[in-house]
Amino acid sequence: WLTNVYVELETFCVQRSMAKVMALDDTNELSGWDSAVISDVEARAQGPMVQTSSCVGDVFFVAKTALEHAVAVQQPRAVEAIAQCVLEAFGEFVRVMGQQAVEKWADVASVQRRILVALNNLDLANVYLQKMVDEVRIRLNTEWARLPETDKTKGQNAIDSLSAISSKLLQAQQHSIDQLSTSLLKPCMRSILQHSYRDIKYVLSDEEFNDVQSDNLFQQRFNLRIRKLGHQLRPRLLPSTYTLVVDAMCACLVYDWERAIRQSKFNMLGGMMFEKDVRFVQLCLEQEAGGVLRAKFAKLVQMARVVAEPAETSVAGVDKDVRALLANRVDVQPN
Question: Is the pTM of this model over 0.70?
Answer without folding.
Answer: yes
